[in-house]
Target: Saposin b domain-containing protein
Amino acid sequence: MKFLILFFFVILALSVSAEETSADPTLCPICQEFMEFLEKELESPEVDKWLENEIEKFCSLVPPEQAIVCKGSVELYGPVVFKVLADNIAALRPCDKIGICDN
Model:
């Protein structure tokens, strides 16, 4: 599961920096199916908890005076952010943006 979440964020990062490439009709359906799978996985309460724990690990790395605010923000906004991500994967069109599928 961790790999899938990491892969999703790598794809999003690449979509921001990727140059225009030609679509790959072989990979496009695979990419789209993966995004549908990931969308369903992101809606899982276990994934929410895992992501919150990982972000809290990050919060422990920031200066102590910011760690409290960081952890509070994760607890307050984390579930909402994860829900928005899960609901909007299709709208982000990462497969199109990295050039695997046609725009």
The helical segments are 2-17, 27-42, 45-59, 64-92, 94-97. The radius of gyration is 16 Å. Confidence is low (pLDDT under 50) at residues 16-20. The chain is about 80% helix and 0% strand.
